[in-house]
Amino acid sequence: NVNHTKVWFHTYIAAPVIGIYDGMLGPGTGSFFTAVNLYFRGFDFHSATAYAKPLNAATNLSALMVFILSDSVNWLAGLVMIFGQIL
């Protein structure tokens, strides 16, 4: 019992808009993806958050590629932050 209008809106409107937001600003993107998955896809909370993870990773990798291609990455700061997250 899939609402195809909601799935279409999720795929072609909500996900790209959230992806653009993530590339420009970022905070709360996982929560936005989760909320969109709950409402538009009809997932339960556990599934909605599970599906939000790869979407969030994809938008982060896309933003990183844009910054790399525009030679706008501060590699030293990034490596320090990676090391801090590992600790």
Sum this structure up briefly.
This protein is mostly helical and 87 residues long. It has helices spanning 4-24, 29-40, 45-69, 75-86.
Describe this structure in words.
The chain is an all-alpha fold. Helices cover 80% and strands 0% of the residues. The chain is built from four helices and no strands. The protein is elongated and about 50 Å long. 16% of the residues are buried.
Number of helical regions: 4
Separation of the first and last Cα atoms: 45 Å
Question: Beta-sheet strand percentage?
Answer: under 5%
Oligomer: single chain
The description of the largest β-sheet is: none
The helix/strand class is mainly alpha
Task: Report Rg.
Answer: 15 Å
Shape: elongated
Number of strands: 0
Order of helices and strands: HHHH
Provide the residue-averaged pLDDT.
Answer: 91
Question: pLDDT below 50 for ≥5 consecutive residues: which ranges?
Answer: none
Helix share bin: over 70%
Task: Write out key terms for the chains shown.
single chain, 87 residues, mainly alpha, 80% helix, elongated
How are the SSEs placed, and which strands pair?
Layout: H1 4-24, H2 29-40, H3 45-69, H4 75-86
